[in-house]
């Protein structure tokens, strides 16, 4: 359980997230993922970010937050998410996200900052933050869907399918579930076969011309999450979520 790192001889690094039952990451999990992404070696050429189980990522561990009587876990998990998303974006080599099942909350931060997304046919993407008394990752959802659709999804908590995102061009390829890993690895092999210095410079150049500073934008969003927590509305939303899970 945790984040496993597999380094292959061809320069492909496979990071596998495995936090049963739904890949909702605790504080430790976000920091662990950030550390794994930040530990790129000179011989690494491309990273494939994937997950075990029926879903790619269910965001933060709501139960861990609800069990904290203060704000220490909230501060820590917000920092952990910020570091993980930032590590994806600033990874010196391209990051390919291989997404199956649900990709919600923090999962949107990860894939939104990825370079390329390959998705299984059953993949769905969304931000249920409003229903959890939180905000955040609209920065990253804006990189996946058009502006007005992002706003509607954010306000309502509805999801978009892999096919919809493929139509927008944000998902590179949609494949049958049992072909997801192969598709991601084939794409990674194509990138790994290029000149590694050129690819690293290409990643730096593409980040440099981005119209939005994703790190600063997401940090701005997080400030409103802290405000909501201070009002008490977030505690109520988390408690309602846990009652619904029981």
From TrEMBL:
<dbReference type="InterPro" id="IPR001753">
    <property type="entry name" value="Enoyl-CoA_hydra/iso"/>
</dbReference>
<dbReference type="InterPro" id="IPR029045">
    <property type="entry name" value="ClpP/crotonase-like_dom_sf"/>
</dbReference>
<comment type="similarity">
    <text>Belongs to the enoyl-CoA hydratase/isomerase family.</text>
</comment>
<dbReference type="Pfam" id="PF00378">
    <property type="entry name" value="ECH_1"/>
</dbReference>
<protein>
    <submittedName>
        <fullName>Enoyl-CoA hydratase family protein</fullName>
    </submittedName>
</protein>
<keyword id="KW-0456">Lyase</keyword>
<keyword id="KW-0443">Lipid metabolism</keyword>
């Amino acid at each position: 359980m945790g984040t496993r790192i597999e380094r292959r001889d061809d320069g492909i690094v496979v990071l596998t997230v495995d936090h049963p039952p739904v890949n909702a990451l605790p504080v430790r999990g976000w920091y662990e993922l950030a550390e794994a992404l930040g530990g790129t070696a000179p011989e690494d050429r491309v990273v494939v970010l994937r997950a075990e189980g029926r879903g790619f990522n269910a965001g933060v561990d709501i139960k861990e937050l609800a069990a904290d009587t203060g704000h220490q876990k909230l501060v820590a998990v917000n920092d952990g998410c910020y570091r993980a998303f930032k590590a994806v974006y600033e990874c010196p080599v391209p990051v390919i996200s291989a997404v199956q099942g649900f990709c919600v909350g923090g999962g949107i931060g990860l894939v939104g900052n990825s370079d390329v997304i390959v998705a299984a046919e059953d993949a769905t993407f969304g931000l249920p933050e409003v229903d959890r008394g939180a905000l955040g990752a609209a920065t990253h959802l804006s990189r996946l869907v058009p502006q007005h659709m992002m706003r509607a999804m954010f306000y309502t908590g509805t999801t978009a399918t892999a096919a919809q995102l493929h139509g927008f061009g944000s998902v590179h390829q949609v494949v049958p579930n049992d072909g997801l890993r192969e598709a991601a690895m084939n794409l990674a092999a194509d990138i790994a076969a290029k000149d590694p210095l050129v690819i690293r410079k290409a990643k730096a150049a593409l980040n440099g011309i981005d119209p939005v500073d994703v790190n600063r934008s997401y940090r701005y969003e997080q400030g409103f999450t802290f405000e909501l927590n201070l009002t008490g509305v977030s505690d109520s939303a988390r408690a309602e979520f846990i009652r619904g899970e029981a």
